[in-house]
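An instance follows:
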Amino acid sequence: VNTPEMADLARRAAGLIAELDEVVPMRTVNMGSEDFGRSLEHVPGCYIRHGGRVPGREGYPAHSNKFDFDERALTTGAAWMAAVARLASSEIG
């Protein structure tokens, strides 16, 4: 279960690097085999994902032999994490 304040911080940080209409909640709650939720029992936080589908191609699950991703998404993800850190340090720290 995400901490609402941390989810809001992550959403606002995403809005700093992307258009807000591109920031969408997951349609289906799914963490795969992730156990990050156990960490959230001890510290505030939220589980996030960002897309990396190659434009114009169909998306496939990570373990599919057809899986591919747009490597430019790595830059977007790093920028998002940096924006989260800046906001958190100015609001929480």
